[in-house]
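#lab-general

N.A. 3:47 PM
ok so I finally got the sequence cleaned up, no stray characters, all 83 residues accounted for. can someone with queue access submit it? mine expired

B.Y. 3:52 PM
send it over

N.A. 3:53 PM
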Amino acid sequence: MNRGLLVLAAVAALFSSSAFADNCPSVMKRIDAAMGGDLDPPLRGDQIDEVKRLRKEAEALHNEGKHEASMAKLDQIRKMMGI
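B.Y. 4:20 PM
back already:
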């Protein structure tokens, strides 16, 4: 029974990291599009710099295969931007 649970957990982890890998680029595109549009409320200069820094870090994490960490950064950006 424990062996079956371990196999199931391993398979779930494999599929979840694949799902994160697919989501990173689409979320980055949404963030990039929102940066070019009107946000309500608009971001201040220091917030824009923070979004750009976090976005760059998220892309680097994605490229390293660290998709969960990348998505965490992207979620932080989305909260800041209200998207």
